[in-house]
Design goal:
The chain is an all-alpha fold. Helix content is 74%, strand content 0%. It has 2 helices and no strands.
Length: 68
């Protein structure tokens, strides 16, 4: 018998369709992201930073509220 990994399972038809849809959505996202102007990219970067900072603050608050 050959040694090594077993052959990977093929996704079901429904899963394959979902995978394809996700890949297409990601491709559209990348296309749209690439099409943004520099000003739009700057605004998007600022919004992402704001969201990251809010999440960090939420996590810090949660940690501080824990009774350890």
């Amino acid at each position: 018998m050959p040694q090594g990994k077993p052959a990977p399972k093929q996704p079901s038809a429904a899963d394959a369709k979902k995978i394809h849809q996700a890949k297409m959505a990601y491709a559209r996202f990348l296309r749209d992201l690439h099409a943004l102007s520099e000003e739009q990219k700057t605004i998007l970067d600022k919004e992402v930073k704001n969201l990251e900072n809010k999440k960090i603050e939420e996590i810090q608050h949660f940690i501080q509220s824990m009774d350890i």
